Amino acid sequence: METRITKQAREFCSKLFSKELSEDKQFEIFSTSMLAIATSSKYSEESLKEIWLNDNISGIDGFFILVDNALYNIYNYDILFEEENLKKFKDICFCFVEAKNTKSIDKGSILKSYTTLEKIISDNCDDNKMLKSIRECINKFDKESNISLKIKIYFCTQKTETDTESLKKSWQQDINMKEQDIKEYIDVETIFVSSNFLSQIYISRQKGGINIRIPQNTLISIDSKCFIGYTSVLSILEAISLNLNGDKLLNDIVFEDNIRLFLGNTNINKNIQNTIQTDNKRNNFHLYNNGLTIIAAQIEINMNDYTFKSITIINGCQTISSLFEIYKNNQNILNNITIPIKIIETTNEEEMEYIATTSNSQNQIDAYQLLSNKEFFKNLENLFNKNIINNKPIFYKRRVGQEDKNNCINIDLRIIMRALMSSVFCIPHRASGYFDDTMNKYLENLKSLNQESYCKLIYILTYMFVLVSDFLNNENKDSKLHLLKHHITFIIFKSFKSISKPRKIGDIPILKDADIEDIYKDIYLLLSDSELFKKRMQKIIKKLETTRLGRTITTNQKVLYSPITKTIDNFENFCKDINNE
Predict the structure, then answer these.
(1) Phi, then psi, of 146 in degrees rounded to 5
(2) In 374-434, where does DSSP find H-type helix?
(3) Which partner for 462 in 19, 190, 345, 419 could form a disulfide, CB atoms 3.0-4.6 Å apart?
(4) pLDDT in tens, 561-573
(5) How far apart are CA 304 and CA 419, in angstroms?
(6) DSSP 402
């Protein structure tokens, strides 16, 4: 008799592929796709077609890459390394899937997966093009990112959850030994997946989706389509969680219409978790948090509660994802914790998009954007608007939502902060990597900044950074020189003025007005003479070729994240030599 999972796999594959496929292949495709859907919050149907390997590798039926919760495959991951997409990745995971459609399984089935993985890691790929492509993919991320990479091996079977758990226990000793060999090179985890879990993912994608029930006495009806009030945090987390071998997994379908994915371990998300973990703040969580905005496809009125069907959370992804990290390990701490909530019933796509956009833009303004109304930054805006250097006008978008201006180099406070880190703050390596965390440390001190001459200093240092970037962007991209914009900006700055590095990150150096005026004049003279500026840049680039920073930038970009004094020997003399020349 045909099992439910077999029917679901056939139904899913018939929509994804037009060709006839065997039951074994259908199960491989279905397993790989359901795991990709369950573990990613951003994917396309087209990308699902490319993650099945079609029997090209022994012991591995599927392969996909998760980068900050978004799904990529062996054919499209290169887009992440195009210049306009380059960013600091927060999380990278390579996922290998082996799926067995038969009920009779022996230990050799999973041992093949480790053998193949060892070939990839040791670069013993023979002539298998797919193995080589996966090897190249892992190497690319290793070179371009500054975080630890990890691998997950998913072993999927037709077995039930109970039988799968029993299978895992009987093979655990062999699994541990194989994992230990691989962990010498890269972190690895093996996960057994039952047919129950795969089926649950499939059903949740169909009509009906995720439903929640909320007591009527905790909600106020604004009209027949809109409710506001509060609910327990646990009721939300329980509704949107999945269980995989005893581990809780967030069902990201609930964030399908949210314009922001989970941003990871940011300061704001740390604060959310700290509030819950602090005894005298935990029970007042609802006072500190803006709450959730939820869209429901249908509202069902029951005797004592409402059932909201096919929900999506369009505002509150950071809150719920942060709370879920606690829920996975200690759900008891969330007992009696409530959260404000607004629920709107609609299936109109245009209305859903408008609600999602306005909810996020009004409620989740980044902390740095709140500085825009300070008089200091208004004066800075006037400086950029009134003074143009070297026929390169800069438009400073001081306020949230300002559109780019044509025929200008458009900047915001983030660019200004990169310029300051690459000069007066003396941490160019922090502008290349760890930027967000570093910037957040300066925000409080920026609020109290009111020295009029400092406004002029920021103006000229930002202009210098922008013109250095502009110059390098016109160079040969294969040389990777454009990645050195922070470091070269710092070299120019240090060749003019020797400033002691602030005692700690977050401190803004105190400078006398006379010193600021000297720095301003020197840099202004350099920037306003295009020929002089060009010669200075060319000399720096040539001299960098003799340093570890310049020599290794094309092969190992992690060098960008090291302090410049470690990548350029006798750095002070290096800067003096440039100035003397």
Answers:
(1) -120, 30
(2) 375-386, 413-421, 428-432
(3) 419
(4) 888 888 888 888 8
(5) 58
(6) P
